[in-house]
Specification:
single chain; alpha/beta; Rossmann fold; 6-stranded mixed β-sheet; 5-stranded parallel β-sheet
Length: about 475
């Protein structure tokens, strides 16, 4: 298996190289050269297997010869042993053919754990082979940061620097990052929004001398391994509901487009998908695109679903690459228009309209959905899940086909919004009950590339061997 850049000017890489590289050197994102295929018989054979077993089978074709099947099977077993639910990603039925996929049973209570617990082990394995250290630099709108830190804390081969928009994540999200005091963990609050944080990270990756000197790598979903690991739960969920002998629809709260892109990857591999519903909050650049063909930045509003307060969705470039027949020149032109003009228009005739639908959920609808879900199903949901539920209901085409909404975070990560909607303050799980009593460590920096680069360079421990 080889990986190619969406912009066509970077060398193809192996899986091992892609994991340790992150962003391509031409500024593009890496994607598999071809999509591995799973037949109906292959998918049907996943029934009854554990999550770790399915992960090993579905993902092994992406690895090439980088990791043996036995080694990778041991990794998936270890990665998912820390989850609080035996099923790892269980389903809750809400009504006839209506389900929640619970993605919040990992150590930091968000869907990012599903990928990052595995990515941490991949780093250990690959860096151990090469006897190298890496400097991980990432941006977070709230959940990636804590999941990445949890996966990388205390690892001698890794220094991790996470940028978040100061004052624009929930208190729980912030403290899950800033109360981790391991010496290899560095939290940076940026005076700006998530798009500013993400732009700083991309600028550091595009500074090739800086990147090479510090051996910079990524845990954001610009790293292919992050998206790859998320493919698995689309398969496990669909199989539990009757795939491949019936199609399944998914409603996905969407900000950075990584989670729903993983569903698209599963579809490309052969999973029978009826709809992929892109659910956005009032920062609706993605839903506007799928409904009008126009992808244009329009500022970022702070909302009760802050993990989706994003305008520039980094994984969207991967989708565009496929949408235009893997024509890197088209992608480069569009990305240039986005940078220079603030947006671009796409030819919607290229789009498989039978798969993608999209809609937006405003603040009032988000809170009313949280309240309504408690009344109807005695189920507390976080505001991102509420967005998925509302837009899923609006966009659903066929009630006879199961609709699965991805529940991306535990309600206790966003207690203010949940309490505002329901009057109930959601309690943190036992392993986090003292979160607000723990010491915090955080550095606040301006939205200035040189300042951030200097801060990281002074603290990174890159050595030639470990």
């Amino acid at each position: 298996m080889r990986y190619i850049s969406t912009r066509g000017d970077a060398p193809s890489l192996s899986f091992e190289e892609v994991v340790l590289t992150g962003l391509a050197r031409d500024g593009g994102l890496y994607v598999p050269e071809t999509w591995p295929q799973m037949s109906k018989e292959d998918i049907r054979a996943l029934a009854g297997k554990s999550y770790a077993e399915v992960a090993a089978e579905v993902l092994q074709p992406f690895l090439g010869d980088a990791i043996s099947p036995a080694e990778f099977r041991a990794m998936t077993e270890k990665a998912y042993s820390s989850f609080s639910h035996e099923a790892v990603v269980p389903l809750t039925q809400l009504g006839p053919n209506e389900f929640l996929m619970e993605l919040y049973h990992g150590p930091t209570l968000a869907f990012k754990d599903v990928a990052l617990q595995l990515l941490g082990l991949l780093y250990d394995h690959l860096l151990g082979k090469q006897k190298k250290r890496v400097t991980i630099v990432g941006a977070t709108s709230g959940d990636t940061g804590s999941a990445a830190i949890e996966a990388c804390r205390g690892r001698d081969a890794v220094d991790i620097f996470i940028l978040h928009p100061a004052g624009r994540v929930s208190d729980v999200q912030r403290r899950q990052m800033t109360t981790v005091l391991d010496s290899n963990v560095h939290n940076i609050g940026i005076d700006g929004d998530f798009d500013d944080c993400q732009a700083l990270v991309k600028a550091m990756f595009n500074d090739l001398d800086y990147r090479d000197e510090l051996n910079v790598s990524a845990v954001n979903s610009i790293n292919w391994a992050r998206v790859m690991a998320q493919i698995v739960y689309f398969f496990t969920t669909a199989v539990s509901l009757g795939a491949p002998d019936r199609p399944i629809s998914f409603s996905v709260p969407s900000g950075n487009f990584g989670d729903i892109y993983a569903g698209y990857c599963a579809y490309k591999m052969g999973l029978p998908v009826d709809q992929l519903i892109v659910a956005t909050n009032k920062n609706d650049i993605l839903s506007r695109f799928f409904n009008t063909g126009e992808y244009r930045k329009d500022g970022v509003d702070q909302t009760v679903s802050p993990s989706m307060d994003i305008q520039v969705s980094s994984n969207f470039e991967r989708f565009l690459f496929d949408l235009y027949g893997r024509d890197a020149d088209v992608v480069k032109t569009m990305m240039s228009q986005l940078d220079e003009d603030g947006g671009f228009s796409a030819n919607m005739s290229q789009l498989n309209q039978n798969i993608f639908s999209a809609g937006m959920c405003n603040e009032e609808e988000t809170l009313s959905t949280i309240k309504g879900m408690l009344a109807a199903s005695n189920k507390l949901v976080d505001p991102h899940t509420a967005v998925g539920l509302k837009v899923g209901a609006d966009c659903r085409r066929n009630n006879k086909i199961p609709l699965v909404t991805l529940s991306t975070a535990h309600p206790a990560k966003f207690p203010a919004a949940v309490e505002s909607a329901t009057g109930i303050h959601p309690e943190l799980p036992e392993h986090l009950v003292d979160l607000f009593e723990r010491e915090e460590r955080l550095t606040l920096l301006p939205n200035d590339l040189a300042t951030v680069q200097t801060y990281i360079k002074e603290r990174a421990r890159v050595l030639s061997s470990v």
